[in-house]
Amino acid sequence: MIMKILLITLEYLPQIGGIASYITNTIKHWPNDNDSFVVCAPKIDDEADFDAKNFWPVYRLEPYFNLIRPRWLKLFWSVFKIVKKEKPDMIFVHHVLPIGQIARLIKKFKKIPYVVFLHGLDYGYAQTNLVKKKRLTGVLSEAQTVVVNSNYLRQRVANQFSALASKTVVVYPCSGYSDVKIDPIKLEEMKKKFNPAGRPVLLTCGRLVARKGVDMVIKSLPAIIKSRPDLLYLVGGQGKCRAELMYLARRLGMENHIKFIGFVDDSDLPYLYSLADIFVMPARQEDNGDIEGFGIVLMEASLFGLPVIAGNTGGQPEAVENGQTGILVDPMDTGQISLSVLKLLQDKELAQRLGRNGQEKAKRFIWSKELKKIFK
Predict the structure, then answer these.
(1) Least CB-packed of 67, 195, 202, 299 within 10 Å?
(2) Per-residue pLDDT tens digits for 255-313
(3) pLDDT at 72 over 80
(4) Which of 144, 171, 198 is the last residue of a domain?
């Protein structure tokens, strides 16, 4: 059956983040070439240039009213008009609240089924009070399929909604990079820009939010520097914690060992992986339920042969096999983080073995193969 799919999201490229990348890769690698997508996403800066590069139409909308409650009714009316125009056969929901409520209403009025994609933070957010839990229950119970990004998240859903087990499917996020050819001239330019002295490089890339654990890596640096005073820590990405992290680095006297390089374009990210010796992201669970549902950036780093240090929380143990493709640590233990970094810097054979194993694992994660699970 050929389908037209309306995908509704609050995060979409060129916004930074795993969900935004996940959505674009879902469309690009959709296994049925005869299906078509229409995207409904928020208005942001520089959207026109990005949208023009892709072959699917994108409706850019302001999702919320300023004063009228519920504020998401503005998005509902906009989506309802798009549904009348585009006549989709299926709706894909990212961000279970409030978009799931919109899809549920459209199903009621237009009989269009919907699939919910859960990523971790959105599911945790929907647990914060009884009203949201009730809405979450209604949205998931009426969904045709519930897609989760890890077995960890699948188990969380099953523990709360046992009736959903039969229609919940795990689709692992996969790297958007395949057969990347590294231009040696550009690589040399990146070396001159970020690491002209050829220092050993520790790398983190991602949104600079608390759960990613960049603060704990910075707090681990003084102990690492005692043994490896030449170490350089590159931090790529933007986010609300950037100023706080920069202050922490200054307070600990680590300015000469850390470079905050800001926004990293997708085309530049393979070069940063190629510059690094170790990728580190000891993500943790926050009190508000924010947790790393999987960690696609961990798989990307592995794809480029990097040994990975990750947190032993959420879905990260599914992305990183402890002692096989990387090292899992207590994300709140600076001692474990510093010892793991030093171990990989000192034991080159171990670092190379973990990197090779991780690369082999990452190559087995193929988008089209994973996405076929949604409609078996």
Answers:
(1) 67
(2) 999 999 998 988 899 999 999 999 999 999 888 767 888 999 999 999 999 999 999 99
(3) yes
(4) 171
Q: Are residues 324 and 192 in the same domain?
A: yes
**CATH (domain of 65):** 3.40.50.2000
What is the extent of the structural domain holding 44? Answer: 4-171
Q: Are residues 232 and 264 in the same domain?
A: yes
Q: Looking at the 3D structure of the chain, how many domains does it have?
A: 2
Q: Based on the domain organization, do 317 and 223 belong to the same domain?
A: yes
What SS3 string covers the chain? CCCEEEEECCCCCCCCCHHHHHHHHHHHCCCCCCCEEEEEEECCCCHHHHHHCCCCCEEEECCCCCCCCCCCHHHHHHHHHHHHHHCCCEEEEECHHHHHHHHHHHHHHHCCCEEEEECCHHHHHCCCCHHHHHHHHHHHHHCCEEEECCHHHHHHHHHHCHHHHHHEEECCCCCCCCCCCCCHHHHHHHHHHHCCCCCCEEEEECCCCHHHCHHHHHHHHHHHHHHCCCCEEEEECCCCCHHHHHHHHHHCCCHHHEEEEECCCCCCHHHHHHHCCEEEECCCCCCCCCCCCCCHHHHHHHHCCCCEEEECCCCHHHHCCECCCEEEECCCCHHHHHHHHHHHHHCHHHHHHHHHHHHHHHHHCCHHHHHCCCCC
- Residue 170 pLDDT more than 80? yes
Q: Cα 29–305–213 angle (5° rounding)?
A: 85
pLDDT digits (tens, 9 = 90+) for 116-129: 999 887 888 888 88
Q: What is the average pLDDT across 52-75?
A: 93
pLDDT at 176: 84
Q: Are residues 218 and 360 in the same domain?
A: yes
